[in-house]
Amino acid sequence: MYIAQQKRHENIAEYILYLWQLEDLLRALKFSPEAIYTSLVQNSDYDEQTKQQIFMWYMSLAGLLREEGKEERGHLSHTLHLIGDMENLHLQLLELPIGATYRTLWAPLKEELPRLRIVIARDGISDIELCFRALYATMLYRIKGDQSKAGAIEDVVNLISPVIALLAQTYRQVEQGEIDLYGK
Predict the structure, then answer these.
(1) Which helix (H) or strand (E) holds 68?
(2) Which of 35, 132, 172, 179 could make an SS bond with 29 (beta carbons 3.0 to 4.6 A apart)?
(3) Whole-structure pTM over 0.85, yes or no?
(4) How many Cβ atoms from other residues are within 10 Å of residue 47's Cβ?
(5) What is the distance between the alpha carbons of residues 168 and 124, in angstroms, rounded to a whole number?
């Protein structure tokens, strides 16, 4: 809960990937309250009241996954909406003068997107969601030690990371009023 709050405040991309990881972890624990408490809460250094708040937060995530019919796979609408917001920002940065640096980073990645769509096997999603799915897939491949597919997208991930990092930084700056996209 606290990690998610910190990531949400500091880096929207890390927040999204963290929530996706939690979704998979909750699924692996089969949404069992006992398993969730034992695995994710019990041994933390927090007092009992805070542990209960954290446990309830995990259970609310589990409840959302169930409500949205995503017990087996898929991502919470909340994170997909955030990715949609980032896609909108991405499209603005491709057009507005403030996006010059972003466009420079984006150009080589754009060339790789058709190949990446084949590797990730995802048609009909935005370019930014595709990038997130590639980052997440690579993270999972690394965790599992599976190099069979990781190599196929590793070179593209090196193009994705700086693009998503700059997009996340710009998102935070816009959200906090530090920059004005339109320069007014």
Answers:
(1) none
(2) 35
(3) yes
(4) 9
(5) 23
Does the pLDDT at position 144 exceed 80? Answer: no
Nearest-10 crossing angle of helices 12-28, 147-175: 130
Write out the two tokens for 108.
Answer: 């080589």
Amino acid at 104: T
Q: How far is CA 165 from CA 12, 24, 158, 170, in A?
A: 9, 23, 11, 9
Q: What CA–CA distance (Å, rounded) separates 181 from 149? A: 38
**How confident is the model over 166-184, as a mean pLDDT?**
91
Tokens 């542990």 correspond to 51
CB atoms within 10 A of CB 10: 12
Of 117, 143, 119, the residue nearest 128 (C-alpha): 117
Q: Under 8 Å CB-to-CB from 165, ≥6 apart: which residues?
A: 13
Least confident of 43-47, 108-112, 156-160: 156-160
Tokens of 165: 């990092």
Report whether 41 contacts 51 (CB < 8 A). yes
Structure-token match 């019990």, residue found: 42
Distance CA 138, CA 155 (A): 11
The token duo for 121 is: 């096997």
